[in-house]
Amino acid sequence: MKDIAQEDLNKLLEESFVTPNEGDIVKATVIKRTQNGVLLNLGLKAEGFLPLEEFGAPEDAEEGKTIYVFLEAFEDREGFPVISKKKADFQLAWDKIKHIYENGETASCTIKKRIKGGYSVDLMGVEAFLPSSQIDYKAQANGESLIGQKSEVKIVKINMLRKNIVVSRKLAVEEEQAKARKRIFSKMKVGDIIDGTVRNLTDFGAFIDIGGIDALLHITDISWLKITHPAEVVKVNDKIKIKVLIMDRETGRIAVGLKQLTAHPWEAIENKYPVGTRVKGKVTSVVDYGAFVELEKGIEGLIHVSEMSWTKDVKDPSSILKVGDAVEAVVLSIDRNEQRISLGMKQTKPDPWSTVDENLEVGQKVVVKVTNLKDFGAFVQILDGVEGLIHVNDFFWDKKVKKASDYLRKGQKVEAVICTIDRKNRRISLSIKHCKEDPFTKFVETFPEGSKVMGKISDILPKGIRLVLEGGVEEFIPANYLARRGKKPKDLYTLGEEIEVTVRKINSRLRRIILSEKEIFKAPPKKKEAPKPAPDKFTIGDILDSQKQAEQKE
């Protein structure tokens, strides 16, 4: 917009209003300011008077000040000229306002006060209306803060008859931003590092003024560290340097980044923390499965619960570590893409399994403590940090165990024999029953098949009886191998009764002994008599005896 110089305007007015007429704009000089108004010299026979309300600013009413007024009439009833400064201001500004409106230019105004539907503004000394909807392209949080501010506006409507002017601050701002955006897009490119001022903060980021337009600094581009709000890093009116990340000419969108000005904390992390390195850090959080440890700003590692102790079965990490604890650990693995570091705390101390072969051997008798019970067996502590398993099959020689908890309890100490040691897979198997001689083996060595042995009835069942033999070996005798028959076993035998039986068969693989009582009472087979030699002569008596034997057979 090209403003007309005040000197040129004064010159034109002096040349145009040499001989004033009613309806003309007249030059006047302030003679005196009174309590009620201002006395003016109009160059007429009578002086003019204006109330103070006609003057926008106090300095306009100072003595000797030159102003222009609209001459409505030369005299009123009292002989004073009828004048108006506001009408003169309006008429003087009108041509200029019309020119600005017709050429789509912007004009400067002062926002005076809030009125219904918007604001009253002073536009070149003329009152104009600024609707609330035309304040800005973004919502204003506090409209009262605009009062008294100077602002550029676009004139959107004029009505001379009604002396009505409507302006828009929103259009002026948008136009100015469009010019600024065009200027910025012409000289800026992605990757440039520029200066900006933080204009506004939101939950999702910050708007940065980069020279008349806003660029978005998203919360994810503020810091390599995790933050919950931009205010943790930047504040309104902060002057910052940012890097241009996105420039979309179609939408006019510009995105910038702050964290991109510094190296990523995980860059070359493998060189900084090689696997096997001892590191120190501070516990930042404790969860069910472990503890997170900060090694430096932006770098955290996890100590899994399984990596906390060689000697303890840690169930609750908070029983070992607390937030704020300083810890020493060993780097176990690094995944830079996933930004994960696995740490081990127990690795800072010797592994008890590394010396197992020196302290333990197969066949060794040890006293162990039950640490955990499962249906299939009992886990026991052999040394600090070294556990083994006693399977239920290794509890007894002569009993079948369904659940370990039926015979052992947690914390109980028992004697066992080491059966196998697998240091590589960290496994040791033990046996309780091998602490004693196998009663089955001893029995079959003493009583081979065909031997007779005494046993005591321990149980009477519908289909037989159970018998405890020498050495504690217990076996079942079916009813068909019992000597007493004809009734049910419970009617023929009593608990605790001792009976003699025969060892019929031994199955060492199945650890079974087949016993029989009835074979004890079986009669031995009769010996066959040698045939008598036939006599040379048969008597009548011999013949009769032979017939008698034949009849008896028949």
What is the count of DSSP helices, taking H or I runs of 4+ residues? 8
Distance separating the two termini: 156 Å
Number of domains: 5
List low-confidence stretches.
Answer: 534-554
- The oligomeric state is single chain
Output the strand order for the largest sheet.
Answer: 3-2-1-4-5
The structural class is mainly beta
Largest sheet: 5 strands, antiparallel
Q: Helicity, in percent? A: 10-25%
Number of strands: 30
Shape, per Cα inertia axes: rod-shaped
| CATH architectural arrangement of the largest domain | Beta Barrel
CATH topology of the largest domain: OB fold (Dihydrolipoamide Acetyltransferase, E2P)
What's the average pLDDT? 84
Strand content: 35-45%
CATH superfamily of the largest domain: Nucleic acid-binding proteins
CATH class of the largest domain: Mainly Beta
Rg computed from alpha carbons, rounded to a whole number of angstroms = 57 Å
Entry keywords:
single chain, about 550 residues, mainly beta, OB fold (Dihydrolipoamide Acetyltransferase, E2P), 5 domains, 5-stranded antiparallel beta sheet, 30 strands, disordered C terminus
What does this structure look like?
The protein has 554 residues and is mostly beta strands. 15% of the residues lie in helices and 38% in strands. The chain is built from 8 helices and 30 strands. The protein has helices at 6-16, 85-102, 169-187, 269-272, 356-359, 439-446, 489-492, 540-553; strands spanning 25-33, 37-41, 48-51, 66-73, 82-84, 106-115, 118-123, 126-131, 150-159, 164-168, 193-202, 205-209, 214-218, 239-248, 253-257, 278-287, 290-296, 299-304, 326-335, 340-344, 365-374, 377-383, 386-391, 413-422, 427-431, 452-461, 464-468, 474-478, 498-507, 512-516. The longest helix has 19 residues, at 169-187. The chain is rod-shaped.
